[in-house]
From TrEMBL:
Entry protein name: RagB/SusD family nutrient uptake outer membrane protein
Compartments where found: Cell outer membrane
Family: Belongs to the SusD family.
Record has Signal as a keyword: yes
Occurrences of domain SusD-like N-terminal (ranges): 98-243
Residue span, RagB/SusD domain: 376-460
Lineage: Bacteria, Pseudomonadati, Bacteroidota, Cytophagia, Cytophagales
PROSITE patterns registered for this protein in UniProt: PROKAR_LIPOPROTEIN
InterPro entries (alphabetical): SusD-like_N, SusD_RagB_dom, TPR-like_helical_dom_sf
């Protein structure tokens, strides 16, 4: 990330080289040999930077597919929307998600599938050319980051496009195609036409293999590692994967590794964890908006849909009073600001929720976590690690690092609430998780692993799984999800 200016010209060459109309499709004009651009360590790091940029989503284009910069969040929050939030915008693509009535030609579904495999292909190209690294230490660092990026994308792809882990049929349920080698030529792409979908279990196995290798490849001596993925970022993602699988012992262990590293610290207030121009102590990993060309200024990204402020946002994601009613009196995470002027920007917002101003959808309740397209988007926060450790320890009956009660009280006290006296319950833990991580893209995945219904739908209902894009079904031998 820090070498952005050095790499930007080369990145545009690489971006054109790797971009494609279909996730698994390379057109003849793009069938260049890797030795055109991948000739030295600097080139290799530039391709890795391209993968980082891809995690955010659109890079200086209007192609769509926002991944961690937007749509992975919105897919989870809209599919799991009940009385807590409504879609108030004009885009049918997201309304289909909120209504649980998706079509196989939904452009957001298509673009994120495509973007996800673009990032995977970039990571695969890095992993296939590690011999270009000048030293073993640099090779390990590059490999670890590339494996972590690939695993992060596959984890969200399999959670969004497949039946959930915990159904009991993971070994037979179709997951997503596992592409582990670079797709460079039309011949490579043609070979993928019969690849099919690996099982959910196989995809999770690959994710865990990549992450466990990445954890050891990235040296702990690098600490938090600035804006890049660190070994502690990898542990944080591992804790997510283990929690999703119900492997509570390992989830607690990995979350505790992040907390006990003492590389991170909670922001002074809940809202202070958001809308920052640079990483803060709470950020285990964040999307670096300010280092990306035209960050968020095109019609995409979380600010576009969550914010309704002067010059920023459409106010499409409208929080409902039922959600605010869940917060205790005095909870800093549930405050509603209703006195903003018509020219207010995020700098004037001091509560987690506010009444939108300055244009369409003004007067609706908006979440203040995403208020400026040029400010960073937290992907992993330290607060999540406390909540994960608390839940995993409670489920396992252990106290790795600390007790569930103490971990929950760390989060409550930061929110301005009195600590719980105990004994703590699973309902207490789940409530704190829902409120602390509200509108950060966790809702659908938490409901599925808790096996809680979403409205009138069972946790494993076909309506809560994205369809495989129609264009992929037409070209490749990929079975469609049930219900489509």
């Amino acid at each position: 990330m820090k070498k952005y200016n050095k790499y930007i010209a080369l990145l545009f060459v690489i971006s054109a080289f790797f971009s494609c109309d279909s996730k698994l499709d390379i057109e003849p004009r793009q069938t260049l040999s890797t030795d055109v651009v991948l000739t030295n360590e600097e080139n290799l790091e530039a391709v890795l930077f391209g993968a980082y940029a891809g995690l955010k989503g659109t890079f200086g284009t209007n192609e769509g597919g926002e991944l961690f910069g937007g749509d992975f969040n919105l897919m989870s929050e809209m599919l799991a929307a009940t009385d807590n939030v409504r879609w108030g915008g004009s885009f049918d693509t997201y309304r289909e998600m909120a209504n649980k009535d998706l079509t196989t030609t939904n452009l957001v579904v298509r673009d994120n599938w495509i973007r996800g495999y673009d990032v995977i292909n970039s990571a695969n190209n890095v992993l296939a050319n590690l011999d270009l690294a000048n030293t073993d230490a640099k090779r390990n660092l590059i490999e670890g980051q590339a494996r972590a990026i690939r695993a992060m994308v596959y984890f969200d792809l399999v959670r969004i496009w497949s039946r959930p882990w915990g159904s009991g049929s993971e070994s037979t349920d179709p997951g997503v195609p596992l592409v582990l080698q670079p797709t460079l030529t039309a011949v490579d792409a043609d070979a993928l036409k019969t690849l099919g979908r690996s099982t959910v279990s196989a995809v999770y196995s690959q994710i865990l293999d990549d992450l466990t290798q990445a954890k050891s490849l990235i040296s702990a001596d690098l600490g938090a590692n600035g804006t890049n993925i660190s070994t502690y970022t990898v542990s944080a993602i591992l804790s997510r994967v283990y929690l999703q699988q119900g492997n509570f012992a390992l989830a607690a262990q990995e979350a505790d590794r992040v907390i006990s590293s003492e590389e991170y610290a909670l922001a002074a207030t809940p809202i202070g964890a958001f809308n920052n121009a640079a990483n803060i102590g709470e950020d285990v990993f964040a999307i670096q908006q300010t280092s990306l060309s035209n960050a968020g200024t095109n019609n995409a990204g979380l600010t576009t849909f969550y914010a309704r402020l002067f010059g920023n946002g459409r106010g499409d994601v409208q929080v409902q009073q039922a959600h605010l009613d869940e917060y205790e009196a005095g909870d800093l995470r549930g405050g509603l600001q209703n006195d903003l002027s018509g020219t207010a920007t995020i700098g004037g917002v001091s509560s987690m929720f506010y009444l939108g101003v300055g244009g369409q959808n003004s007067g609706q309740i908006q979440c203040a976590k995403f208020g400026d397209p040029n400010l960073n988007i937290p992907v992993v926060r330290l607060a999540e690690m406390y909540l994960t450790r608390a839940e995993a320890n409670f489920e396992e009956g252990t106290s790795v690092g600390d007790t569930p009660l103490n971990d929950i009280n760390v989060i409550r006290e930061r929110a301005g609430l009195a600590p719980l006296a105990g004994p703590i319950t699973m309902d207490d833990i789940r409530k704190e998780r829902r409120l602390e991580l509200a509108f950060e893209g966790f809702r659908l995945h938490d409901f599925k692993r808790w096996q809680d219904p979403v409205g009138t739908l069972n946790y494993d209902a076909p309506e809560l799984v994205m369809p495989i894009p129609e264009r992929e079904i037409e070209v490749y031998d990929i079975p469609q999800n049930a219900g489509y």
